[in-house]
Amino acid sequence: MRLVLLGAPGAGKGTQAVVISEKLDIPHISTGDIFRSHIRSGTELGLKAKQYIDEGKLVPDELTIEIVKNRIAQDDCCRGFILDGFPRTIPQADYLEEALGELGKELDCVLNLHVPDEEIIRRLSGRRVCPHCGASYHILYKPTKTEGVCDVCGNKTVQRDDDREETVLKRLNAYHEQTEPLIRYYEKKGKLVTVVGRERVEDTSAAVLQALGVK
Ligand code: AP5
Ligand code: MG
To answer: CA-to-CA distance for 174 and 180, rounded, in angstroms?
Structure first.
């Protein structure tokens, strides 16, 4: 299955992508995670992307498209993939359609996780992540078994730099201005399925799998 997860920052794209990826055994590709890994390694791409991410802005399309182009060309994507956080602009969506079209392929589904803005702010202020393995938690909704320690690898969990409230508000703005128009874009193409992501994590996962027709 070739799937796109669309949704505001903090809507639960990453959380649900992990569940779908395990269930369908297809790779989970998060452009945000790829940028953060470049930032940690201090690459040129990481340095460029960091300026935008810290400001709560989108990274320019040319840089983002380049990393997706390289990633979806890898062998593990031949049976499908989950794109989490890409596309986020109309030019990115046009690129994806064209790139898949050249391979004689197309997206199967665009899953839109809808969560209201006030809930987003609650979620992102309580999110903690493991910088080592990338696992994501919430201090109230999805706590680690031991406070501040990753359940998966035992490293210390931290708050993401861009989860400070002033940056979250900028990210939400960028979402409404640049990404939300993709809802209509994919609706017109008959690819959009919307799931309200307000319920508990497990209940949202059940609704997501049902919407995708996965048992
Ligand atoms: P990215 O890392 O993609 O950030 P984002 O879209 O802002 O989304 P998040 O990762 O913050 O949220 P999520 O939807 O994955 O939610 P999560 O599952 O963690 O991108 C970061 C930056 O990189 C961007 O700002 C941009 O600068 C740049 N970038 C990336 N892609 C780009 C692109 N295509 N073009 C240009 N720039 C790009 O959940 C959030 C929290 O809520 C967690 O604590 C979780 O435990 C909790 N939670 C999840 N579900 C539930 C639930 N149902 N109930 C209660 N709590 C829940
Ligand atoms: Mg994420």
So the answer is: 9
Question: What does residue 141 show for φ and ψ, rounded to 5 degrees?
Answer: -85, -25
Per-residue pLDDT of the chain (215 residues; tens, 9 = 90+): 999 999 999 999 999 999 999 999 999 999 999 999 999 999 999 999 999 999 999 999 999 999 999 999 899 999 999 999 999 999 999 999 999 998 889 999 999 999 999 999 989 999 999 999 989 999 998 999 999 999 999 999 999 989 988 999 999 999 999 999 999 999 999 999 999 988 889 999 999 999 999 98
Cα angle value 74/67/169 (rounded, 5°): 135
Distance 82 CA to ligand 1 centre (A): 14
Per DSSP, the three-state class of 20 is: helix
Say whether 127 is catalytic. yes
Q: How much distance in Å is there from the Cα of 31 to the middle of ligand 2?
A: 9
> Where exactly are the structural domains of the chain?
2-211
End-to-end CA distance of the chain: 14
Q: Is the CB of 88 under 6 A from ligand 1?
A: yes
Element (H, E) at 169: helix 165-174
- Alpha carbon distance 88, 59 (integer Å): 10
User: Collapsing DSSP states into helix, strand and coil, what is residue 155?
Assistant: coil
Identify the helix (H) or strand (E) that includes residue 34.
helix 31-41
**Would you say the CB of residue 13 lies under 6 angstroms from ligand 1?**
yes
pTM of this prediction exceeds 0.90:
yes
Please state which CATH number belongs to domain 2-211: 3.40.50.300
